[in-house]
Amino acid sequence: MIGFLEKPLGLDELQAGVAQVFALPRGGAQRAAGEGLAAQLAEVFCEEAPALLAELHAALQRSDAAGVHRVAHTLYGSLRHFDADDASTVADQLQQLGADGEIDGETVRLAESLRVSCERLLASLNGSPGAPGVHSPRRRSE
């Protein structure tokens, strides 16, 4: 089993085990691994985004602020993997409105803007090999 450490263990053993599990390939292999991951992220987004947009629409129809928050939060997390800063900003604003319990004209306007941005991104990802506009996942420190 990869990453198995017998207890009790010291700090040095723990750090070595964590380093082994999270070791990244270097150079060209690292870029290839990043591109493969980016393609997987694009594939998952293309599969899940239409259903999430439908859920967002349904939540708005029900005036379900918690539902709007949940879906916008999910889309926000997904959009952060792409060069879609405008869309992720809108998703962030929408999730905040949902968290605040606000379903009003501004919420509907933002949801429509998010839908259009997501559909544009979906068209770009589906129409281009290698998923342009996708970058390697961001580290938390970025």
Characterise the protein shown here.
By secondary structure, the chain is mostly helical. The protein has a domain at 38-127: Four Helix Bundle (Hemerythrin (Met), subunit A) (Up-down Bundle), CATH 1.20.120. The chain has five helices and no strands. The protein has helices at residues 11-21, 27-61, 65-79, 85-99, 105-127. α4 runs antiparallel to α5 (105-127). The longest helix has 35 residues, at 27-61. The chain is extended. The model is unreliable at 24-30 and 129-142 (pLDDT under 50).
Features:
142 residues, mainly alpha, Four Helix Bundle (Hemerythrin (Met), subunit A), 0% strand, disordered C terminus
Brief summary:
With 142 residues, this protein is mainly alpha-helical. It has a domain at 38-127: Four Helix Bundle (Hemerythrin (Met), subunit A), CATH 1.20.120.
* CATH architecture call of the domain at 38-127: Up-down Bundle
Radius of gyration (Å): 19 Å
**SSE topology string:** HHHHH
Which structural class matches the secondary elements? mainly alpha
Helix content: 55-70%
Topology:
Blueprint: H1 11-21, H2 27-61, H3 65-79, H4 85-99, H5 105-127
Helix pairs in contact: 2-3, 2-5, 3-4, 4-5
